[in-house]
Design brief:
By secondary structure, the protein is an alpha/beta fold. It has nine helices and 13 strands. Bound molecules: uridine-5'-diphosphate (UDP).
């Protein structure tokens, strides 16, 4: 189809962050081609886009050769299982999408002369020995532990992306995404906030792993998407952290969910998963300076919106 609009390919389009990216790029006037193999994504996240003629969807696995007819101005590679329980269940697919999938999309970017942004992660820092984590930190990753399949795939993704930049001159961007939350997270995604909200809504025990003193820093999805959009439009090719620097313990998060939802649920303590990072907080100086970006949505506001979404989603279960 001939178009004057800028065309962007988004892989992982039916996923949590991918679907919000589709919404943002459409709102900015782009023609969007979404791609997903629906391994962890859901058509429910993008069904509202199907009536539009500036949105197209390809059901495709990016670890296989990727063909997109016509011009492409931008590619965003967001396809990957991203929750610890997903990459434990699908270790080989996780490794393949970060490696073979990334290779295919970098090849496509080279062929189309498109700028490509790849989704990396705070997991490249592993269980960090430096706090907060700045982009210069090389990380503390266990390659043979259960999280290694995701962490090493994403580290490979970064290395491959730099190689295409240096060797082929492809315009590349690398975003390291920290914990992000919001509507369209899956109820059974297994991550802390979806578990806590689902459990609280159903008055079931809220499962804290370990003593709950481990920390995370939660960024609302519209802020994450805005950081990604700004990075893509910037001229900076080295990795940039995108996340919210407000750090809390997991126990604190559970308590906030209890008071928000007014639940009868009790907190229960379970075993901490292997290699679970003890602390995580992004240093976002780079994003602030280079992209004039910092998170705008407070946790109170973000949790409220996410709660509204989860109430409806849990309602549909019964
Ligand atoms: N966690 C928890 N209870 C749950 C799910 C997760 O206490 O039901 C903990 C988990 O062990 C980790 C933190 O919450 O310390 C964040 O986990 P999540 O899976 O959300 O993401 P991660 O940041 O570990 O990738």
């Amino acid at each position: 189809m001939k178009t004057d609009k800028q065309r962007v390919l988004i892989t992982g389009a039916a996923g949590f962050i991918g679907s919000h990216l589709c919404d943002r790029f459409l709102a900015e006037g782009f023609e969007v081609i979404g791609m997903d193999n629906l391994l962890t994504g859901s058509m429910d996240n993008i069904s509202h886009l199907f009536p539009r003629d500036d949105f197209h969807f390809y059901h495709h696995d990016v670890t296989k050769f990727v063909h997109v007819p016509g011009k492409l101005d931008y590619i965003l590679h967001f396809a990957s299982p991203a929750s610890p329980i997903d990459y434990l269940k699908m270790p080989i697919q996780t490794l393949k999408v970060g490696s073979l999938g990334t290779h295919n999309l970098l090849g496509l970017a080279n062929a189309k002369k498109a700028r490509i942004l790849v989704a990396s992660t705070s997991e490249v820092y592993g269980d960090p020995l430096v706090h907060p984590q700045a982009e210069e930190y090389w990380g503390n990753v266990n390659p043979v532990g259960p999280r290694g399949v995701y962490d090493e795939a994403k580290r490979f993704l970064e290395a491959m992306t730099m190689a295409y930049h240096n060797f082929h001159g492809v315009e590349t961007r690398i975003v390291r995404i920290f914990n992000t939350y919001g509507p369209r997270m899956r109820l059974f995604d297994g991550r802390a906030l979806p578990n806590f909200l689902r459990q609280a809504i159903k008055d079931e025990p809220i499962t804290i792993y370990g003593d709950g003193q481990q920390t995370r820093s939660f960024c609302y999805v519209s802020d994450t998407v805005d950081g990604i959009f700004r990075l893509l439009m910037s001229d900076y090719h080295l990795p940039v952290n995108v996340g919210n620097p407000v750090e809390i313990t997991i126990k604190q998060l559970a308590e906030e969910v209890v008071s928000l939802t007014d639940t009868r649920s009790e907190l229960v303590f379970e075993d901490l998963p292997t290699d679970d990072p003890k602390k995580r907080r992004p240093d976002i100086s780079k994003a602030q300076e280079l992209l004039s970006w910092s998170p705008q949505v407070t946790r109170a506001e973000g949790l409220r919106k996410t709660y509204d979404y989860f109430k409806e989603a849990v309602g549909k279960l019964s």
